[in-house]
TrEMBL record:
<dbReference type="Pfam" id="PF01891">
    <property type="entry name" value="CbiM"/>
</dbReference>
<keyword id="KW-1133">Transmembrane helix</keyword>
<feature type="transmembrane region" description="Helical">
    <location>
        <begin position="330"/>
        <end position="350"/>
    </location>
</feature>
<feature type="transmembrane region" description="Helical">
    <location>
        <begin position="79"/>
        <end position="105"/>
    </location>
</feature>
<dbReference type="InterPro" id="IPR002751">
    <property type="entry name" value="CbiM/NikMN"/>
</dbReference>
<keyword id="KW-0812">Transmembrane</keyword>
<feature type="transmembrane region" description="Helical">
    <location>
        <begin position="117"/>
        <end position="136"/>
    </location>
</feature>
<dbReference type="InterPro" id="IPR025937">
    <property type="entry name" value="PDGLE_dom"/>
</dbReference>
<feature type="transmembrane region" description="Helical">
    <location>
        <begin position="48"/>
        <end position="67"/>
    </location>
</feature>
<dbReference type="Pfam" id="PF13190">
    <property type="entry name" value="PDGLE"/>
</dbReference>
<feature type="transmembrane region" description="Helical">
    <location>
        <begin position="7"/>
        <end position="28"/>
    </location>
</feature>
<dbReference type="GO" id="GO:0005886">
    <property type="term" value="C:plasma membrane"/>
</dbReference>
<feature type="transmembrane region" description="Helical">
    <location>
        <begin position="148"/>
        <end position="171"/>
    </location>
</feature>
<keyword id="KW-0813">Transport</keyword>
<feature type="transmembrane region" description="Helical">
    <location>
        <begin position="183"/>
        <end position="211"/>
    </location>
</feature>
<feature type="region of interest" description="Disordered">
    <location>
        <begin position="231"/>
        <end position="256"/>
    </location>
</feature>
<dbReference type="GO" id="GO:0000041">
    <property type="term" value="P:transition metal ion transport"/>
</dbReference>
Amino acid sequence: MHVPDGFIDAPVSAGTGVLAAVAVAASLRGARRELGGGLGEAGERTAPLAGLVAAFIFAVQMLNFPVAAGTSGHLLGGALAAILVGPCTGVLCVSVVLLLQGVLFADGGLTALGTNITDMGVVTVLVAYGLFRALLRVLPRRRSAVTVASFVAALVSVPAAAVAFTALYALGGTTDVSLGKVFAAMVGVHVLIGVGEAVITAATVGAVVAVRPDLVYAARDRLSVRLELRPSPLAPADEPTTAAPHEQESASAKAPSRRSARSLWLAGLAVTVVCAGGLSFYASASPDGLEKVAADNGIDEKAEDHAAEDSPLADYGVGDIANARLSGGLAGVIGAGATLAVGSGVFVVLRRRRRGVDGSASTEAQQPADVSTER
């Protein structure tokens, strides 16, 4: 659903650019809290996980899957990012992916970057996270409920983004087309794409829940482990065997699965490399949902050439390599690596700034107040 240059006019593109900038600024502030504020050991793992989530989204977006005759779809990733690392961090993950796709691969217009961040980042994240949290309140308190909720949230987030694009096109579309037809076509095909999004999201979230449930940000309060203490043989018989509430909370934050977060991170990195460097060669060559709807309804009549069309990585291939498999695979690995580096860098800096702020506040709180006496 990458919107090219020329689909939306300049005023609306500028407006979505401002909206996206505000959303990213707010997310930078909120991500400091999500990347460790009050999360104990789990917080230490969130920053590198967030960088990996961004790289994984980039890689899986290369895997277009067929959804109808002559149409394909791909992961948007907002639901996955919001559930795993939080809504603010999720917006940043998708924004990093869209920025690098536009600059390095000529995918998604540069003047339309604000539109794409608003549509594919902000809308999908807010819709998916809100629905996911609402579902957890009514579903049974089981791990399987987290997977079910992630499936539904991801499914709904994709047609929601299609509705948002239609609304933006109604405000600033550059061609005179029937909005009713555009709405029906966009929502119809993106419901099908949403099924694929839901399967990928639920499978990924389910895998993380099975290994390290404490790393699923949006469900930590549902997946906490209650600490029970065995009575000591030397303790009095009437001594309570359950820890105090504050001790239970602290223990649940420090009771992750025995498998290390490093193993999970390495496994995720391996899957990312395989998707970007190998499986991407077998992706569907059919146009994605937006491209197909645009071609069928004349939305693309005023589409503009991409400013980065001469990039050596344009169209997800290395320009000087003739072998299509090698060219595409190498471009995918380069893109995933760049996304991992940029995303991890941003999140580590935010995490350290959060730690610095918390440390300064703690030091200030511990300093004795000056006491002056007057005689």
